[in-house]
Amino acid sequence: MNNDTVNVTIIGxxxxxxxxxxxxxxATFGKMIFSAVVEPNDRRYKEGCEWVGYTPNRYTNxxxxxAKENLDALIIASQNCFHLDNIxxxxxxxxxxxxxxxxxxxxxxxxxxxxxTQSYSQPIMVDHVMRYAxxxxxxxxxxxxxxxxxxxxxxxTQYHGGHSMFTTYRxxxxxxxxxxxxxxxxxxxxxxxxxxxxxxxxxxxxxx
Length: 208
Hints:
The protein is of the alpha/beta class. It has ten helices and six strands. It folds into two domains: 6-127, 3-Layer(aba) Sandwich (Rossmann fold); 130-195, no CATH class. It has helices at 15-27, 42-52, 62-68, 83-90, 107-116, 134-144, 163-166, 173-176, 179-182, 184-195, and strands spanning 6-11, 32-38, 57-59, 73-76, 97-99, 124-126. The protein is globular.
């Protein structure tokens, strides 16, 4: 990194990886540079390059990328079921890491991920972007100011066109964790943010 740029590698250059590369580079006016990606799939790499408009260095595995690239940070945007393995490979880098939500694809793997990162010396940020939406921040301000009284419950409903849910890895519980983990993680994060407390019990219903 020089005084003006931050060099980042994205692990997983599929739907979320390519979006993050373009969005973050645009939002930082080019100060965030994505010089390399880890993407073993030829089609996803090609589509990602077309999306962002350039061709970052490509690696098919994390270890080779870490050996060759001079980095300032990492983004893990691989499929949910690979997050634990990916982050384990990155724990010796001492680099800030942004991890796409959800943490992983099962409760046991989520717990393992939390355990193995407890002693990590650099920040690990989970990409819970919904809490930064203006409408959510307005709701938070109203609640904190007592303008709507005491909040006793939340009711969240998500409507989704379905294409990316039923034509990609997200369609299987094994790979994505199911819709409660894949999508409702946003709802749970917003609930924590709005009320400023963790729940004693969580229940959910997912219907197609």
